[in-house]
Each structure stands twice: as structure tokens, then as C-alpha cells.
Amino acid sequence: MKKRWLILWGCLLLFISYTVFKNPFNTNVAKRLEPVSFEYWLGTDGLGRDFAARLFLAGLISLGFSLLTVLLTACIGTCLGCLAGFYDGRLKHLIHRLEDGLVIFPDTVLALVIAGLLDASPQSLIFAILLIKWISYARLSETLVTETMQKPYVSMARINGLTDSMILRRHILPPIIRQVVVLMSLDVGKVILFLSAFSYIGLGVQAPLPEWGAMLNEGRPYFSSAPRLMLLPGACIVLTVVATMGWTRWMKKKGGYVNDSDSELTRSGETRPSA
Amino acid sequence: MHSIVKRLLSLSLFTLLITFSCFVLLRLLPGDPVLTLLNIDELSATPEQIEAARRELGYDQPMLVQYVRWLQDIFTLRLGNSLQTGRPVIEMLLESYLVTGELALGGLTIALLIALPLGIGSALTTRRSVVRLAHLVSMSGAAVPGFWIGLLLVDLFAVRLGWLPVMGREGMTSLVLPALSLGFPLASVYIPLIRLNLRRELNQPYIELARMRGISERTILWRYALRGSVPPVLSVFGLTLGSLAGGVVVLEVLFAYPGVGKLMVDAILQRDYPLIQGYILLTTGVILVLHQGIRSLNWALRPDWQKGTHT
């Protein structure tokens, strides 16, 4: 296990230093579409930019964007869900109405509308994803909170005079966080797919910043002469998404989820041993 | 009957609310449609020209007046004219909805052709290879971006082999590649869904009872289990239909297919406000109606759901 991490960090360091040495933004028209060589590890693209460096930077951008978005979404969704579960009444009702109103809107439609209202940029994409995805976090955490509230230790804590915020922080949040993290790890891959699709049509990450979907669009004219410009970014997307899926699976196993179905999150009851 | 009227009323109120907030947002935010229309930056167009264009389009009026004027447009079913082409928005939108519908139908057909046999098969069989295959297909469909499949398919079948057109919309053959690249990711959602729900239904006690009464396995599967497992699948199907109604954005752009998604991407890039407003209004309406339709269908199939909070 240790060795594997060492190799991973080594590769990362190697790529970072490569990207730093070969500026991914430097265009060199004399060296367009260079083949794979020692100088250019994966050749150059249609504007003579180093392809390997761009590919790596694109990966960092995709991952960073995705992690940021998912983190933001999970925070907001979980907070609202906890509030709805903890405080019965008007607030809960309001949050439910909001969920019901938004849940029917598909993410692509909402992203299009928001790009139309605001601007074609990653920020509006984040906003669109936020508007859609917080619902699943809110619903998950609300169910969990209502479930946890019935546990005897919560009544015990209340009898002992703990304040609401302390009960929430100490007794209710910790078990929720674990489940939320599993959901988050699944969403990271989905958001990467979403971002690449919108960057492909020009409504996501804007040039000159590289992004895998945008790179697919840039490489399209050169498909027959340099197929690697189309194959590699796509393969990177697929590998990253598969990796997040595998990571989710591993976390489910670790965190007491039982992988009952292929995709459904089913929580193991106390009676069932975790797989 | 009364409840339907009430529902319709609340739906139209909701739609009105959406139109108003979108309208206000569009006007408050930066980006001037008049400048984009004149297609020149502030330096080269004289202020008089800009002012004249603004007056001609009615953008010099107060916001509320503009909104009321747009509402009039809605009730005359014209939705105003597009800033870029000058044609009625409703005409452009309906035209592209038809194209998107065609594409969606093709994609759904492919998705069902993949998902139904694999989903039902993997739920019924105990053979490992079938289950593995279903799992593999659904995993890869979820991980591979549809537009990448589209690009690779175009390269293989259109560019290298020359069997099918590269892009555009001429006849049935141009529908094959977009439908394939739409259907494969769609199928990935339905394979596990069908499998899970069918398995759950087959484990219900009433199926065991039917077996004991000597009802044939085939009848049990087709009349009982499949029917019972339809509503959850149908709910997700409603969401899919909704997202298709908004346009198959990326694939339409990729294949230069003149559907709603492509129309909107162009409208956004050119800040064609009447078109964007019309899209928001119509798509919201379509999605709401679809959602309500699916819900009513589920109530008919599973009356016990009406009491719960299922949607």
C-alpha cells in the first residue's frame, strides 16, 4: 500500500515539473501537430502547444472545479437538510417546497437557462449544479437526522441540558458526514462529465484554459491526422470517472454501506454485518 | 375534476412566477442585446443609432411595461420576435422541438433496446456472465461521455467507412449516430433500475402466493412482477423525458442537429432575449406537464402511492 502511494506521488511530481517546464499556454506555430517525441511527450496540438502539459493542467482544473462544486453543494444541502430534519415546522415546509419545485428541472436545462441569464462561464455552471444537486444531500441528511433524533442518546443529551447546536454538532452530524462523503465521491465524477460536456460546446471553461471537453473540441479538425488529440482527453475523462466510481465502492464497503444493488445507496441496519 | 382544475391553476401560477423572475433577471444583468444586435462595440456605433434601435425594439420603456408587453405576446401565442432572425419565437421553438423530439425518440428506442433485455435478463437469471455483462454496460455507459462516443462513431462510420453522414439532418441515416450516442448513456441509468425493481418485486410475498396457486411463471413475470416494477422506473423516465425536452444540447451541437439545445446555445451566445424567454417558458411548461402526467400515470398503476409522498 505504501509503495503504491509513493509511485502515485512520484508520477504527480513528475507531471507537475513537466508542466512547469513546458508552459501549456505557449503557442508555437512552427511546431504544429508534432508527433510524440522525447521533447514533447505526447506531441503538440493544433497551435503547437505541448499536449501532455495541457492534458495534465486540464485534469487539475476538472478535478479542482468538481471538488469545489461538490463541496459547496454538500455543505449547503446538508445544512438545509439538517435544519429541516431538526426543526419541524414552517422551515421544513419551506425547504420541502423548494425541493419539490427544483427537483423536476433537469440539470442540463437549468445550466442552459442560467448560462442564458448570467453568462457562459464556469461560475454559472457551478451555480446551476448547486441549484440541482443540493436536493439529494438535503434529502439524505434529512432522513438521517430524523432517524438519529429517535435514538435514545439524543433524548439523553437533551435531558442532560445540551443546547440544540451542541446536539447537532456532537451527536447528529458525525454519522451523517460519513454518508454524505460517499454521495460526494460519486458526484465528483458526474460533475466532471457535466463540465466536460458544457466546455465542449463552449459554455464551460473558456479558452485559453485547457479542459478535457474543450480539448476534444479543439482537436476535432485534426482527427484523421492526429487521433491522439481526440482519444487521450476522452480516455482521461473515462478513467477519472471510473476511478471515482471505484473509490465510492471502496468507501461504501468501508463505511458500512452494503452494496445491495449496482448503484443504489442502501444503508446497512444494525443487524446486518457490514460487507 | 376539481383537483385537476386546482392543479392546472397552481401550475400556471408557478409558470407565471418563473417568467417574471426570469424576465427581471435578464434585464438586470449585464450584456446589452441591442449592442450585440448591431454587432459593433460602443466605439463604432453612434449613440443615435443605438438609441434608435433600442426604441424600435421597445427596450427604452420601463421594465414593467416591457413585461406586460411580453405577457401580451404570450397570450397571443407569438412570444415576440427573435432579435437575430426577426422570425416569431414560437415558430422557431416549435420547429426545433420537433427536431429534438425526433432525436429523443431515436435515443430512447436505442436505450430501451439495450436496457430492457439486459435489465430484465439480469434480474431473472442466476448466470454470472449475464449479470456481469449488464453491470459492465451500465458502468461504461455512466462513465463514458456521450459526446465522446459520438465523436468516435462519427470518425469510424462517417469519416473512415463513409456509411453514414457526418452531421446535419438529412433523412433517417443521419439520425443513427446521434441516437446511438444518446441511447448508450441513457441505457446505463435504466439497466440497474429495472434490475433492482424487478428483483424487489419478485421477492414480494404475493408472487410466492401466485406460484402456489399454480399460475405460470410467464404470467407471473408479465402480468404481475413487471407491472409492479413499472412505477419507479416510470418516475425516472419522466425525469429523462424532461431533460430531453430541454434539448439534447451537446449532441445537437456536435452533429449540427437543429434542435432546441443548439438553438438555445446560439441564442445565449448572441443574447437573443425573446428567444431565451420563450425557451424558459415553453420548456418549463412542458416539463411541468410531463411531470404531472407521469405522476397521474403512477397513481393509476399504484393507487397506494397516492397517499405517500412519492413523486
- Give the % helix of chain A: 55-70%
Compute the gyration radius of chain B: what is it? 24 Å
Q: In sequence order, what are the helices and strands of chain B, one letter per element? A: HHHHHHHHHHHHH
Structural class of chain A: mainly alpha
Quick one: which chains have the greatest interface?
A-B, 43 and 50 residues
Largest sheet of chain A: none
Shape of chain A: elongated
Tertiary shape of chain B = flat
Quickly count the helices of chain A: 9
Query: What is the string of helix and strand elements of chain A?
Result: HHHHHHHHH
**In angstroms, what separates the terminal alpha carbons of chain A?**
21 Å
Q: Tell me which oligomeric state these chains represent.
A: heterodimer
Q: What is the count of DSSP helices of chain B, taking H or I runs of 4+ residues?
A: 13
Overall average residue pLDDT of chain B: 79
Number of E-state strands of chain B: 0
Strand content of chain B: under 5%
Low-pLDDT ranges of chain B: none
- Helical residue percent band of chain B: over 70%
First CA to last CA of chain B: what distance? 20 Å
Q: Could you tell me the strand content of chain A as a percent range?
A: under 5%
Q: Could you please describe the fold and organization of this structure?
A:
The complex is a heterodimer of chains A (about 280) and B (about 300). Chain A is mostly helical and about 280 residues long. Chain A is built from nine helices and no strands. With about 300 residues, chain B is mainly α. Chain B is about 75% helix and about 0% strand. The interface between A and B is large, with 43 and 50 residues.
